Write the structure tokens for this entry.
Amino acid sequence: MGKAEPIFTRATFQFFRDLARNNRKVWMDANRERYHETVVKPFRRLLEELSPTMLKLDSRFDTMGRSGANFSRINRDIRFAKDKTPYRAQMYLKFSAPFPGEGETGELYTGISANSVTVGFRIYSGSKRKQSALALIADPRVLEQPKWLAQQKKRLTRRYESYWYSAAKGEWREQKGWPDAAKDWGKLYAWIVRRKLKLADATRATFPGDMAKIFRDLYPLLRFTSLSD
């Protein structure tokens, strides 16, 4: 077998830098081929390389390669963008298991932008918390197994950053650390556990394997908060 080749190169980060400086449809149209070569193709290759590992971890993961399900959309709805820029200068690869409700569920993800690489777990309540996995699956489990959060904190806190969001009067407030108590969980609207990597880490051939190790570490969080079995 030949030597493994890196999936991402400096060209991916450079594209996002240029997009951030030229966030206009005219520029994006002129650089559409470059976008496909430096962003779309590498992300699809990353999905292909990770899919066997992810399906072994949980056969219910969606690995079909659809935008929205596996890849974040680069186009943004500028009706809700405060800065009115039509594109997001970043891309996410996401894995989530089917959720029977219509609300949000947990994800294992990696995100790449001009100046950052993150890999982790995240779960959001969405616009209707009562219909989300947080309310239907996670909340009852935290009450039934109050020691679980402390166990995960002890297992992961040295290697991963954790933060969460509470909501009061329609405003989200970031809370550093772990949502340790049931009283914290009751007002939790989002939770992120992640590791920040160096840009150079993503340009190494070992990047998919490094991601797989992180996903194996964090899969129990997804299972506890989002899967009914």
